[in-house]
Specification:
disordered N terminus; elongated; mainly beta; 322 residues; six-stranded antiparallel sheet
Amino acid sequence: MKKVLALVLAVVLCMGLGVVAFADYDNNTLGTQKIEFSVMMDDTDLEAADLKASLSWEEGKEYFDKVELDDGDNAGEIEVTVKFKDYYGTDDIDVDFTLSLKKGSSKKDFTPENENEAVKELRIAVTFGWGQIEPQMDKDDDNVTVDSEEGLVVFDDEDAKFTTFEFENLEALSVAGKMSKQEPVNMYLDTAVTDEIKALMKKNEDVDFDVVDFKGAPEFDFTQEVTYYIDDEDVEYFVYEIVDGKPVAVKAKLNDDKDALVWKTRTLGTYIVTDDEIKAAAAETETADKENPETGSVDFVNVAVALGAVSLVAAGAVALKK
């Protein structure tokens, strides 16, 4: 909160303005990537359907998805929701833009909620992202607990030599490997069925699917070993990675105890574990061979490829005088 508040106040001081209204945000539900606030129109007969939002960007336009206007509970009250694309990187993202509401070609006067001074524009300055919310780490045995629901997902420990990741929302899974001088990685794990996987399930109605979805596609300098414990040792299980929307068979092998599937990779993606072979699967691939040789060099590509769903860390709106 302090970081963003300082940003907002800096804008106020630079522009010589003093009217600040804070937008509502949900910092408890991860996956929230929107700013919500209300404004009161000078003309109380105006409704959301009469207006069009216009955004002028200083920073963060590449993360913008859409803006929605809805009628509030009071006459002339307009509820504004600015939504952003998914983001699963490891750095905070600064977003800075000016919002105006127009009817036709004319900007309409409005005020932030609980403010009396009419304005034509609102300056919004926010920061969102996972920040450096680190998983809980047991220094004695280098075990790390990743809790996606609580936001404990970004691993950033240059002193770690070897790490075993375990997951609160999927106890059957672990990821282990060398971590020497590893750049930060976002280990956010989702087990929900995506639209792509749902389409596969329709084609394979008699097959059971388990989903292992690393939204941030974290990359590692060294090969990691993925272990997935199976339910029934008498059943033959299969692992597929979803690549460009299609399932690709992964060379997963049973461990010595025959109670878990094991495969190796340096980039964690979206996987499905099934109790039978599925239709529409591409040729088998060795995911561990996708990466560069293990030199230990910092030839690491940041995982911020998937612009992803994140909770807002903080949000503020600065009202510009008419």
